[in-house]
Amino acid sequence: PGSVSAAFQEYLRHLGLQDFPCGLGSWNKSCLDARRSPRAEPAGLEEAVPPGEETPEALLELLRDRHSPWALPPDCSPQDRLLREVAVLAPELLRGSRVLQLVKSLRILDKGVEEVDEGVLRFQQLEELILSANHISKVTSAHLPRTLKVLELCCNAVHDLQDLCAQPPPELQHLGLGYNQLCGPSQEKHLTVDFWPNLVSLDLSFNSLTDLLGLVSQLSTLQNLRILVLQGNPLALIPSYRGFLVDSLPKLSILDDIHIWPEERQQFHGLARQPELIRNEGRVVVSIGEMKGLPDPKAFQQLKVGSEGPVITYSYCVTYEF
Question: Keyword annotations for this protein (predicted)?
């Protein structure tokens, strides 16, 4: 599927919400009749279940018992369990677009999604949208529900933030853009409080951001920012990178998955006022311990001088990719 909406429909089909023990069928047809006749008296707790049918409790047990062939895998999401159990207790809630009103967290990982389409707006209660490991190159913010608090786009192909920042969700607290194709310095202007007034966590790791001073000047406007991940960018190679960030963003609690303790903040106190110490260069030391699969040079030293044997010359090219 190329869109989020198409991937969600495929996800519903995979959950089997209309198949036993979920949905409505011969296994609970009296339940269907009761829903069609709202004036009917509610059945007593001890009333016998018609032959060939199951109680809602028995159907739920088939979903929850890990030995059941209908049980979800242990690593499934809470959303999966919720929808399956709703399909047992109130299957009419999952018909048509009504199912979209129940979804608060949507996780579509590695499904070939290329577009965040307008259909995502139909998820009117959506708070968390996880779209990692897809093929998304840009996100149109007008297609994102205003209720969104978490947007995770790790491992995609996002290279520009302009469309995302046109009308961003005002309540967003986490924005994950790690392992994308963001290049500085043109992107830093989109990372300010004007676009993200409630942002608490920001992941920009493993992109191609290079302007540390420019980025810090924009991030300093995010008064609620507490968690920041920048490792894997070229700017992280600058010698005073961590110290400059720690001193420049005094409200930050965690940088690159490492907690900032008061001792560290005291150690780098005053560094933010000395930007001249930020050199736009870095140093990398590469040590090669052992290389396998190469011919042993000693074997060629056994040839006598003047030997008419063939002379074989090997050459190698070693490439370092950053």
Answer: Leucine-rich repeat, Repeat
CA–CA dist 207, 230 (Å, integer): 8
Instruction: Report d(CA 258, CA 228) in Å as an integer.
Output: 10
DSSP 21-75: TSSSSTTSHHHHHHHH-TTSPPPPTTPPPPTT---HHHHHHHHH-TTSTTPPPTT
Q: List C-alpha distances in Å: 79 to 48, 75, 92, 259.
A: 33, 12, 18, 31
Percent of the chain having pLDDT more than 90?
A: 50
The answer to whether 103 touches 125, Cβ cutoff 8 Å, is yes
Are 263 and 285 in contact, with CB atoms under 8 Å apart?
no
Q: Which two tokens stand for residue 185?
A: 């310095």
Say what the pLDDT of residue 53 is: 78
Across all residues in the chain, what is the average pLDDT? 86
123 closest CA partner among 102, 95, 94, 96: 102
Q: Which of 180, 185, 119 is nearest to 155 (CA)?
A: 180
Strand order, beta sheet including 150-152: 105-107, 128-130, 150-152, 174-176, 201-203, 227-229, 254-255, 258-259
Q: Identify whether 275 is preceded by a cis peptide bond (ω within 30 of 0).
A: no
